[in-house]
Structures are given as structure tokens and as C-alpha cells.
Write a structure and sequence with these properties.
Blueprint lengths: L6 H5 L3 H23 L2 H24 L7 H16 L5 H23 L4 H21 L9 E2 L5 E2 L3 E2 L3 H23 L2 H18 L4 H27 L1 E2 L6 H14 L6 H15 L6 H15 L4 H10 L4
Antiparallel strand pairs: 1-4, 2-3
Helix pairs in contact: 3-7, 3-9, 3-10, 3-11, 4-5, 4-6, 4-9, 5-6, 5-9, 7-9, 8-9, 10-11, 10-13
């Protein structure tokens, strides 16, 4: 004898889904009205770094792989997008896509080498590869060396939308960020994402269940690099510049700080962390090198006092999933 499901069981949304949907709706609403109150260029920078932090969080927060070289994918995507737009005459959408594809290829090569090791050895390999490519960027003629690639044209999106207009550029960056954010969210909550979490929690057990963990880690690495490249390519078009700063090791450190401040292994944590770090860089610029000291203090505080990050602690107190 079969029994029909109750209406409540059919229409009730899980608490996790409700909280995440509400948080996403609030985030989108704030981002839509933000240009009225905040300078659009700051918002675009924050969104680019938020996507970068989300890409990094996919690797560390959900797979447990600490990369000290994610500036490699962010920075080289920036160079390729800038070169494609300025020298090759690509439309902005194709220039950004070229940067993301370049990051994916670099991620495949670097990931194939790095996942052979674990822990600190994995982190050191990613750092070594990133620094090798940094010194290549210093010497390569097409990168502009210390001057970088300047005066990159924003162009017309799909040949129709003039990205020279601040609001048009902001709308484009917002769409790219939301698209990347939702794609990462889907990956995290897919069966593939569940395997990644299993690898993070207990890799030997995942192997015993028949999962090819190295293949899953490599795919996650490439995906993380691709989204980082998407962020870097977008930033090059926004600021009309690609420089050594984007590919240097402090950039890798900054994205680690963003993820830790916001909350590793949370969906919205990297976004919050990126906004906080970018705000500090902009509004504390007058204190010079003391910004690095302040960032160091915040990093130590997060590690010692708020180990789950801002969003992680908030979610734990409210007993919801964010």
C-alpha cells in the first residue's frame, strides 16, 4: 500500500537552501543599488577579487589543497586578455575568454605536477611554478616588463555596448561575477562537489570507495584556475592595465587572506573577505606600508579568534548554512 507525500514535504525547502537563497537575493540587491552610493570602479575591483577568492576557496575550502601560487592564473589571464584586446584587437568578451582559457591550460599543467604531492609540498610546488612564471613575465617582451600592458581599450561588448561608460562596465562585471559565483555554487553542490568534500575530510577513505581522487583533484584545480583567470581577465579590461603586481607572490597571499577573513568552506565568505581586503587597500592607502601590518594583524586575529571567518562564525551562531 502506497501513501501520498504530504503537501508540506513537497513544498518545504531545506533550511540550507532557504538561507542561501535569501543571502544570494540580499547580495544581488545590494550590488544592484551599490553604484548609487559607492564609486563604481571600487565595486568592480571588489567583484573581480571576490570571484578570484571564490575560485581559490573552491580549491582550499572544498578540496583542502592550499595553493600559494594562484596569482599565476589571475596574472597571466590578465596579461593575455590585455594583449588580446590591445594588440590583437579582440572584443572584450573574447579577450576575457582568452585569458580564462590560458589560465585553464596553465592550471592543467601546474595541477598535473602539483597534485603528485600533498600538504606543504603541494603548496611549495605551486609557489615555485608561480614565481617561475613571474620571472618569465619580467623578461618577456610582450608583457611590457615593469611597465606592464597599459592603455588597454575596453571596447564594445558584443560590438554593441560601450564599456567606456562606467555603468555599462559595472553591469558587465556584475554579470560575470554572478555567473562565476553561480557556477562555483553548482559545482560545490553537485555529486562531483560531494566527492571533493569527501577527499578533503578523508582521502584514504574516498580512495577505498573507488574514487579516483587524483583525477578529481586535478579537475578541481583546473576549474579553480579557470575562474581565477576569468577574474584576472576581467580586471585587465576594467582597469585597462596588466602589470607584474597581478602575477607576483603577494597577490597569492592576498587571496589566501580574503578567503580566511570571510570564511573557508563557505559560499559567501570569500565575497565578504574580498570586499573587506579591497576596502582596506583603498581607504587605508594613506598609511602606506602599514596596510600590510594591518592585514597581518587581521590575519592573525582570524586564525586565532575567528577560525571559521566572519561568515563562518555568523553561520555557526545563527545555525544556518552560508
Amino acid at each position: 500500500m502506497t501513501t501520498a507525500a504530504t503537501p508540506m514535504s513537497v513544498v518545504t525547502m531545506p533550511a540550507r537552501s532557504r538561507s542561501e537563497v535569501i543571502a544570494f537575493a540580499v547580495m544581488v540587491a545590494l550590488l544592484l543599488i551599490a553604484p548609487v552610493f559607492i564609486y563604481p570602479l571600487f565595486l568592480m575591483k571588489a567583484l573581480c577579487f571576490a570571484l578570484f577568492a571564490c575560485a581559490f576557496n573552491l580549491l582550499l575550502g572544498y578540496v583542502g589543497l592550499l595553493s600559494f601560487g594562484h596569482a599565476l592564473y589571475f596574472g597571466w589571464a590578465s596579461y593575455v586578455s590585455a594583449y588580446a584586446a590591445k594588440v590583437l584587437g579582440f572584443n572584450p568578451e573574447f579577450a576575457i575568454l582568452a585569458g580564462a582559457l590560458t589560465a585553464a591550460v596553465l592550471g592543467l599543467v601546474a595541477g598535473s605536477l602539483a597534485i603528485r604531492r600533498q600538504g606543504i609540498y603541494f603548496a611549495m610546488i605551486t609557489l615555485a611554478l608561480a614565481q617561475m612564471m613571474y620571472f618569465f613575465a619580467v623578461q618577456a617582451p610582450f608583457t611590457g616588463g615593469e611597465d606592464g600592458i597599459q592603455s588597454v581599450p575596453r571596447g564594445y561588448l558584443f560590438g554593441l555596448i560601450d564599456l567606456g561608460q562606467p555603468l555599462a562596465m559595472y553591469g558587465t562585471v556584475l554579470v560575470i561575477f554572478l555567473g562565476g559565483f553561480l557556477a562555483i555554487y553548482r559545482i560545490i553542490h553537485s555529486p562531483f562537489g560531494e566527492v571533493l568534500k569527501a577527499i578533503r575530510e578523508n582521502e584514504p577513505r574516498a580512495i577505498s570507495l573507488g574514487y579516483k581522487t587524483d583525477r578529481h583533484k586535478l579537475i578541481a584545480f583546473v576549474l579553480s584556475a579557470t575562474f581565477a583567470g576569468l577574474a584576472g581577465g576581467t580586471k585587465a579590461i576594467v582597469f585597462q592595465l596588466a602589470s607584474l603586481t597581478d602575477v607576483d607572490w603577494p597577490m597569492s597571499g592576498e587571496v589566501v587572506l580574503m578567503a580566511l577573513v570571510g570564511g573557508l568552506g563557505t559560499v559567501f565568505g570569500p565575497v565578504v573577505g574580498a570586499v573587506i581586503v579591497v576596502a582596506m587597500q583603498n581607504y587605508l592607502a594613506q598609511v602606506g606600508q602599514w596596510v600590510l601590518v594591518i592585514q597581518g594583524v587581521i590575519f592573525v586575529a582570524c586564525v586565532l579568534l575567528f577560525r571559521r571567518g566572519i561568515v563562518g562564525e555568523l553561520a555557526a551562531r545563527l545555525r544556518i548554512k552560508l
